[in-house]
Amino acid sequence: MDEVDPVDGKDAMRQFAIIVVLLLFAASALAEGNKRHLFILAGQSNMERLDAARLFTPLLEAALPADQLLVIKDARGGQPIRRWVSGPGRSLSAMGRGPLYRQLLGRIEAETGGLYDFDSVTFIWMQGERDAREGLGAYYEEKLRALLAALQQDLARHDIGLVIGRISDHGLDGPRSLDWQRVREAQMRVADGLPLGSWVNTDDLNDGLGADGERQVNALHLTPSGYRELGRRFAVAAIRLLGQKAAGHKEPQPSQENDRTLVQNK
Fold first, then answer.
1. Residue 169: what pLDDT?
2. How far apart are CA 172 and CA 190, in angstroms?
3. Which residues contact 255 (CB under 8 A, 6 or more apart)?
4. N or C end of the chain: smaller count of CB under 10 Å?
5. Residue ranges per structural domain of the chain
6. For the structural domain made of 13-247, what CATH number should be given?
7. C-beta atoms surrounding 105 within 10 Å
8. CA separation (Å) from 108 to 35, 44, 71, 212, 261?
9. What is the predicted pLDDT for the residue at 61?
């Protein structure tokens, strides 16, 4: 019998249920319709490998059929967060906007015509593996907060929704396990502390059949089916934040499966 990928092997009704969830959000808090929503996707290789046009945008279009949606993705593999926000310090004023941030902002300006009169802006971030590998986990949170602050300032709005793809369990048992965990915890703290913040689990998305057909376990990059699931999780989280924004409150963060406890560097 052929080996079945763990994500693909789940009940097919699960995919249908996710679509139903999205439509329910659209039919309730977002029922007014005719709104304009901007979704910005950025990060390193796991974001770069996500085919947003195929695995993310169609779910938004199904949930928000009456609205105008603009999805912009700009990602670069193997990059630390200092390529977006550079320099030391605990505030945006003490840090500089790095080359990848300027590239991202330039693309946003080009595709929006410099007009940011959207009803909502959602920033979806999948990055952090490089910082963990370089032993920079202790500095990650301040840079992540500075990155969001830069977007808020440059887009002239403070109601930007944030969805973070928490880095997977790939490095939790390696030589930089403590830094890996620090990045994960920083991502959760930042998302959980925001009125419009959410994070998604990726620990179960890097096991299974890789793009080369070989079995992979706790790999750095996700499996093809893992990327499909990541696109769905990002879409569900983004729609949930839109519903919370429309309702004027934040709902509790859903429980996340496959969490790993803190492990020390070996």
1. 95
2. 20
3. none
4. N
5. 13-247
6. 3.40.50.1110
7. 17
8. 18, 18, 10, 34, 38
9. 93
Amino acid making up residue 133 = R
| The three-state (H, E, C) secondary structure of 10-74, written as one string | CCCHHHHHHHHHHHHHHHCCCCCCCCEEEEEEEECHHHHCCCHHHHCHHHHHHHCCCCEEEEEEE
Token pair recorded at residue 142: 């301040």
pLDDT at position 127: 98
Q: Give the separation between CA 139 and CA 132, rounded to whole angstroms.
A: 10
Give the position of tokens 């490998």.
49
Burial 46-78 (b: 16+ CB within 10 A, else e): bbbbbebeebbbebbeebbeebebebbbbbbee
Model pTM?
0.86
Low-confidence ranges of the chain (pLDDT < 50): 1-6, 9, 11-12, 257-266
